Amino acid sequence: MKRFRIIGILLALVCGQAGAAANAAPETPRTGAFTLTYTTAELLGDDAARVEPVIPQDEPITWEIYVPPGYRPAAPPGLFVYVSPMQTGKVPGKWRRILDEHNLIWIGANRSGNRVVVGRRMLFAVLAILVAEQGYAVDTSRLYVSGFSGGGKVASRLATAHAQTFTGGFFIGGVEVWHDEHPDNIEFMRSNRYVFLCGSNDQALRSCKQATRAYNAAGVEATELMIIRGMGHDTPDTSDFEKAIIFLDAR
Predict the structure, then answer these.
(1) What is the C-alpha separation between 225 and 214, in angstroms, rounded?
(2) What SS3 state is found at 69?
(3) Residue 19: predicted pLDDT
(4) Across the chain, which distance is largest between two alpha carbons, in Å?
(5) E strands of 125-248, at which residues?
(6) What is the set of domains in the chain, with CATH numbers?
(7) Which end of the chain has fewer surrounding CB within 10 Å, N or C?
(8) Residues 6+ positions from 196 with CB-CB distance below 8 Å
(9) Exposed, middle or buried, 235 (CB in 10 Å: 0-12/13-18/19+)?
(10) Model pTM?
(11) Residue 187: CB partners within 8 Å, gap ≥ 6?
């Protein structure tokens, strides 16, 4: 319990900086898919010492980012933060067109798979907002956190603990939910939007249904349970991915 209290304090520190005004964007911002590397010292300055128990200040952390080719600071995109169950945070190629059409930047940390401790994965995901804001204007009303399988479980923890930062959550084949008392941030959650997506043959289907019911019972009405017929424990195709994005954006 003590370890998770420390993680909560550290996440609050990072989330307090996330979503702030972005640094001046370069004259010709880079678009497409590429890798960015930062240390916590570079992102947090003196405050990096406070995350030292989880991430050393001088440790290089890499994120895979995809910026739509039509990026314009005057029409800032939303940000889609992805927690992967694997060691790469790259966007699946099949989803890039949807990101382009719906004006979303994708970012996912590398070396953040299911074998990595939860505290590091959560911090990588929150730091991703600061990374994106180093060079891009971001629409902070469209900060979405997502993940697949174990990454979906981590994403749901972030969406619950930091509902004032993440305005939507998209949990694919994995989600965690509270069992007793409502989260402290329940009022923020009631203003956000959430998608629970599972295949009809996915072992996570039961937890997706349970989570949807729990959110609704807590007064979180903007939820969508998507059950993909015939799909097992897998990510959705392009059309279902787009349906989820449309729901998140329908505010």
Answers:
(1) 12
(2) coil
(3) 62
(4) 51
(5) 143-148, 168-172, 193-199, 223-228
(6) 2-10+27-249 (3.40.50.1820)
(7) N
(8) 171, 175, 208, 209, 211, 212, 223, 224, 225, 226
(9) middle
(10) 0.93
(11) none
